[in-house]
DNA sequence: AGTTTTCTGGAACGAACAGTCAAATAAAGA
DNA sequence: TCTTTATTTGACTGTTCGTTCCAGAAAACT
């Protein structure tokens, strides 16, 4: 499944052949069809799984550290430091490829974005309660902005931006929380 | 050409069939091949043209208004107000689809991003000179950040975000420049 | 050890793909 | 008006696509 996720993220749905999937997953073609049904079902399952894991990871990062602001900083800067050159996030890739054309892809994307933004908003609210984040900041707006920043970083990285560039961009984004 | 751009932006390179191009461009199949050579050449030409126009538009917006900060605000908020639901930017789409896999696509994307960011950086520098933008802000970092914000807004819009959400996100981004 | 289930790799299938060909029509030039 | 050039339309071509079929091998079960 992880191999399918990576292949779909790299080449997109249309650009990924079943041959490429069979190769990257290292299973027989018939087993792939027996297990997942068809290419689209495999894509949906990979996307669902990917989004679920991503939300889980963000939740762990933002809920583990004492200071909410530090947690958000760690999430953004950690992402900028860690993301691999040329990699693509399947979530962002699915939005770019399908827009809202496919109802199930759209549903997974919206659900995942909503969960992600709820976690950000809750963290922002905690930061406001603790006086770390200015009171005039709306948690939902800030959550959407952070999500947009993650998207921007992902596409930049996909296009070959350096880690320094990504980190500087993340630093700029964090200014609005101070 | 505009029709080809829109079709490629909507479906991506792999997802766009030559039949769809013939239909959207409203010309004969043979004429399309006579004029552009093949699908890939048409894509490259559409991408080049799209990026050139985008940079031109941003230049006009950012260089026409007296106040640099106001100009950047107008660019971001204007974009958030104007962008159409479900549309896709061919530039962002090309990065997401190809990453750095295709040398010519990558070259067009990097060149366009560099031009765009130079315009942003020059505007930021003017804002610093006029005291509108804090002196500790690095123009190149800010330029990259603004570009990342545009990317984030474009993908959000593609995923169905409302204009209010986009505007609020743009407002958050503008806080980083204050 | 024998039997059953699962997996593999290759072949086959029909549909879709990008690109080419050919004849007819329309537009441009003399 | 006639000739030349460009465009259109439909058909065609070989390749690739996603999916199914099949026989043999491997793994799991009794």
Automatic annotation (TrEMBL), chains A, B:
Q: Indicate the segments forming the HTH tetR-type domain, all copies.
A: 1-54
**PROSITE patterns the UniProt entry points to:** HTH_TETR_2 (PS50977)
Q: Record's InterPro entries?
A: Homeodomain-like_sf, HTH_TetR, Tet_transcr_reg_TetR-rel_C_sf, TetR_C
Give the molecular function GO annotations: DNA binding
Q: Which residues bind DNA?
A: 17-36
**Superkingdom:** Bacteria
Which keywords describe this protein according to UniProt?
DNA-binding, Transcription, Transcription regulation
UniProt protein name: HTH-type transcriptional repressor ComR
**From which source organism is this entry?**
Komagataeibacter europaeus
